[in-house]
Design goal:
The complex is a heterodimer of chains A (about 325) and B (about 300). Chain A is mostly helical. Chain A has 15 helices and two strands. In chain A, strands 1-2 form a two-stranded antiparallel ribbon. In chain A, a hairpin with a 2-residue loop joins strand 1 and strand 2. In chain A, helix 12 runs parallel beside helix 15. The longest helix of chain A has 28 residues. Chain A is globular and about 55 Å long. Chain B has about 300 residues and is mainly alpha-helical. Chain B has one domain. Chain B contains eleven helices and two strands. Chain B has a two-stranded antiparallel sheet. At the A-B interface, helix 6, helix 12 and helix 15 of A face helix 4, helix 9 and helix 11 of B.
Chain lengths: ~325, ~300
């Protein structure tokens, strides 16, 4: 059985893992504690992002180069609503997710007939346009000044201001997202996506409503991206257009390429390996090299495509 | 009243001159995208980085960044040749092994190479903007060549335009009147059939990369001089715009890339001057998206449905 299915069905496998993740904040780490929890939170956040991206290139086989746009839309929706109305996370978050999904559909609908490389280009152009809007519409987004002072996340009226609380919060979102994607993958919807990925024309011929299922994939992917964005805005408490540049899309793409496109576990492992690695490189490398650390990601993508095109955990394709 | 009108029209003419200059540079880069796409149906994302390499190499050789300062003409020649070679290497190392793989794999590799090269440049030259030392560059380039009232055309602008025109004519001659040009067109039509007729596909693809990358390198040098600024991300922005130009003209078509480059250069300058300067970068993206959505074959496209 593929690891993907085992991980989420075998109690002996997922219970110990879940336990390890749950006790992490309570391990004796001395002064490094807050830092380790921060990186762990970041890793979980990227796991959520990777799951969201994976839905489009991994499940339906379309290369999305503008995924970070939805991360940005979610972050700005949540950030601005919080700053202006002081609403609770639990009101702001669904709105951000809905807004993300809406833009996913709006972006996706005109691209339905496009081939793979043109789809990639349109998605790329879309995310660049989003950054331009974020940068230039000062009345809405404050442009290059960014949005500072976003309130921390809250739960039942209490502010979550401890690092372990936000860690558990993103863990909850990750489990939620995993539950959704694992369930969908083995449903009729998931099978329709795989059929489209393997051969769109054949899928259409056997009666798969390609347009409808693609739109659902775009909406789900964008919704997950926006969810991550909403959490990010409330966690980091400052957002800026430069945080949502093309690089981020490539970094997230790198996570799923590394783990194996279309593999849910692969996307988790990609984030688990590469996100802490980025943070370690940031510390270990001298300042003049650390800005060039994306070099490794570029190289990694090339090497993976050359020797392990299906990633570390390839998905079986019948 | 008359004065205001004159001022308006001279502003317009100056924008026209700047737009044509920019457009001819975009055209030089766009040709590289379009030729590679025509031959192997790959969007070579790393092409912008070759252009950046051209600018950095010529800057380094001229200014003595590598220890020795060379005369301008020699430095420029070496830079262009190295760019051509880098293009060939890029193909041989990264793309050729994936020729039979799914197209998505090659596309992702191209993005990976683009990021790798951009960060390599960051590592070697640093993020700070570099400018050509004035004394190392022929002084006449920056002098005004023609002046009509307030409209100034510099020698550099004339050089950019004439280099672009000469190279384009040269390129058309190669593609249409030489044996290797015929081989390129044959591969663009049907790679398997061309191979069966005895065309050495790998050699022709390498030649295509060399030609496109050489032109990209020339564009990089010209831009480096024009804006007097060389930096690692310059290839990223110019690359997207040139790619948009190639799409606008119809990807795979060389005259299309030239026309697309011209239109985009003018649109950017006039859009930036008359509509909104903060969105002038967005014009390229918007044009690109609209063309792909409305008329994916572009102005001169000969893209067939199955290749689309």
């Amino acid at each position: 059985m593929h690891l993907d299915d085992r991980l989420f069905s075998d109690k002996k496998l997922y219970l110990p893992l879940l336990a390890a993740v749950l006790v992490l904040p309570w391990l004796p780490m001395g002064t490094a504690g807050p830092y380790v929890i921060r990186i762990a939170t970041l890793t979980l956040l990227y796991m959520v992002l990777a799951q969201g991206l994976n839905v489009v290139p991994g499940f339906t086989g379309l290369l999305d180069l503008g995924y970070v746009g939805f991360f940005g839309i979610g972050a700005y929706t949540a950030g601005l609503l919080t700053v202006h109305y002081q609403w609770s996370l639990w009101l702001v978050l669904p709105l951000a997710v809905l807004n993300g999904a809406l833009w996913g559909v709006l972006r996706g609908a005109p691209t339905l007939r496009l081939s793979d490389d043109y789809f990639a280009i349109v998605t790329f152009g879309f995310s660049e346009l989003i950054i331009l809007v974020l940068k230039n519409e000062l009345w809405l987004t404050r442009g290059p000044m960014g949005v500072p002072g976003i309130a921390r996340p809250d739960l039942f009226g209490r502010v979550l201001d401890q690092p372990w609380q936000t860690y558990y919060l993103i863990l909850f979102f990750l489990l939620l997202v995993l539950w959704v994607v694992v369930r969908i993958r083995s449903s009729r919807l998931g099978r329709a996506w795989f059929a489209i990925r393997e051969d769109e024309i054949a899928a259409e011929c056997v009666g798969v409503n390609v347009a409808r299922y693609k739109i659902i994939a775009f909406a789900l992917s964008a919704a997950i991206g926006a969810l991550a964005g909403a959490f990010y805005a409330r966690w980091f408490r400052f957002i800026h257009p430069d945080m949502f540049k093309f690089w981020e899309s490539i970094l997230i793409l790198c996570l799923i390429v590394f783990g194996g496109m279309g593999s849910i576990t692969g996307a988790l492992i990609g984030a688990l390996v590469l996100i802490p690695l980025t943070e370690i490189l940031r510390i270990v490398l001298p300042a003049e090299f650390s800005s060039a650390r994306y070099l490794i990601f570029g190289l990694l993508i090339v090497v993976m495509m050359r020797w392990r095109p299906a990633g570390l955990l390839p998905v079986e394709r019948e | 009243m008359l004065n205001a009108l004159l001022e308006q029209s001279s502003l317009f003419l100056q924008q026209l001159v700047n737009g044509v200059t920019l457009g001819s540079i975009y055209a030089l880069i766009a040709v590289g995208y379009t030729m590679v796409y025509g031959v192997i149906q790959l969007i070579n994302f790393a092409h912008g980085e070759i252009y950046m390499l051209g600018a950095f190499l010529s800057f380094s050789l001229v200014s003595g960044f590598f220890g020795i300062g060379l005369p301008f003409a020699l430095a420029v020649t070496i830079a262009v040749l190295v760019c051509a070679l880098a293009g060939v290497l890029l193909d041989v190392v990264a793309y050729r092994p994936l020729r039979k793989a799914p197209r998505l794999a090659a596309l992702i590799t191209a993005i990976g190479m683009s990021i790798f090269l951009q960060n390599l440049a960051l590592l070697i030259w640093g993020a700070q903007i570099k400018s050509f030392p004035r004394e190392a560059v022929p002084a006449f380039l920056f002098a005004p060549a023609l002046q009509f009232g307030d409209v100034v055309i510099s020698w550099l602008q004339i050089v950019i335009l004439s280099v672009a025109v000469i190279l384009m004519v040269f390129l058309q001659l190669i593609v249409h009147y030489t044996k290797i040009g015929r081989a390129m067109r044959a591969i663009a039509q049907d790679q398997t059939a061309a191979a069966l007729m005895g065309v050495n596909v790998n050699r022709v693809v390498s030649f295509t990369f060399a030609l496109g990358s050489g032109l990209g390198g020339v564009a990089g040098i010209l831009v480096g001089l024009y804006y007097n600024a060389v930096y690692p991300t310059m290839g990223y922005f110019a690359g997207i715009k040139a790619f948009a130009a190639a799409v606008l003209g119809g990807i795979g078509s060389i005259p299309g890339a030239i026309l697309g480059g011209g239109i985009l250069g003018l649109a950017e300058v006039f859009g930036g001057g008359y509509i909104s300067s903060s969105y002038s970068d967005g014009i390229a993206y918007a044009v690109m998206i609209l063309v792909i959505l409305v008329k994916p074959t572009g102005l001169f496209g000969r893209l067939s449905r199955d290749k689309a």
